[in-house]
Amino acid sequence: MSKLMWSGRFKKQLEDNVNALNASLRFDSRMYAQDIRGSIAHCQMLGKQGIISEEEARSIEQGLISIKEDIDSGALTFNSKAEDIHMFIEEELTARIGEAGKKLHTGRSRNDQVALDQRLYILDRLANIRIQLIDLYRVILEKARENIYTYMPGYTHLQRAQPVTFAHHLSAYLQMIQRDIGRIDDASKRMSVSPLGSGAMAGTTYPLDREYVSDVLGLSGITYNSMDGVSDRDFAIEATSALSILSMHISRFSEEIILWSSQEFKFIEIDDAYSTGSSIMPQKKNPDIAELARGKTGRVYGDLITLLVTMKGLPLTYNKDMQEIQEAVFDALDTIEGILPPFTGMIETMIVNKDAMQKAALGGFTNATDLADYLVRKGIPFRDAHEISGKLVAHCIDRHTTLEALDIVTFQSFSKLIENDIFDAISLETCVGKRTITGAPAPDTVDTELKRLELFL
What we know:
The protein is mainly α. It has three domains: about 20-105, Fumarase C, Chain B, domain 1; about 110-360, Up-down Bundle (Fumarase C, Chain A, domain 2), CATH 1.20.200; about 365-455, Orthogonal Bundle (Ribonucleotide Reductase Protein R1, domain 1). It has 19 helices and six strands. Strands 1-2 form a two-stranded antiparallel sheet. It has a two-stranded parallel sheet with strand order 3-4. Helix 14 (about 370-375) crosses helix 15 (about 380-400).
């Protein structure tokens, strides 16, 4: 095991199994680019403030750039004996440029260094997830445009309720994704501050220019309490919370994809490139992408619970427990980034069976509410109209028929106020087309809403 940077006070080396438990390089090495980026900003500030010479600052910066280039290219691999990515880079820097490398850590602790690296890393990953969400949003929007006049049953309690259009149904998910993007933006905004200068927990006596470092890193400001700067991880919890809500929305959509693609619904067909088969049943075409997206939601929830439980009992300031934060938030980010591209491709390539959707909308008494509304317009109180409509539905069920298949004589046997205009009133086109208030499924209303949703892009 290589000499640890903090070993001066100790008379014994760590036991190998203790080092294996303590070391974090195997998972925090993924933050090397952010660690180097933060270190470059820090050394530039040290040079500007005269804490180290400008020549030393340039040497450190050039050394850090060369390390990143070599890691990027694979010319430099991580030393498995290093404690963490921060110590690995500092050791490599000192080996490359000599004594100047030992001055990089002036005015800095690993506590504020780690807090910065995590912020920068999560910000970078959230930015990529945001791009993926915009791609999904575009695909759903385009699929909705193609189906403004595709009628389908809307459901409550998974029972056919009222007719809508597929575009209206998809539009609901666009609203959810808008809010998901908003939560990511909000979390990113609060995360975009630099804790550097907090030191281990009580700041430093060096004349650091904290605002300069924040500006160099493109952040919006600094933390204003050194203890808070190194001890809280609410930014990681908030990001994972936003991802959990996003995952829940994807899971709900996945559940519907799974149902719609079944032989019982046949509303859609998933493209072969986004389906799998069975090792024993030759006829099977399984919606595995949707099932995995649904299943991995529990994993993201678990990551959020891990973060909350880890932090809930920690006194200020830094505690080693907080090392556990990294793997959980990394897993949530990895999971979401792994889900979104194939999920987007699945939605983009799926075939919509418009005839099956319309047939289902016609066959489930989804126009019963419109029948009641028709009677209300004829002067019957809604509760009485509701009862008459319900009795007509029961009549149809007993005779294995539908409302639109009844003749006028039968209708009038339930209410003399029903006239021949009933057939137009309960047609699918009328039931949907007359729901024109904002947020309703009439094709013209949905078209207007899709134009508004497009502006979000």
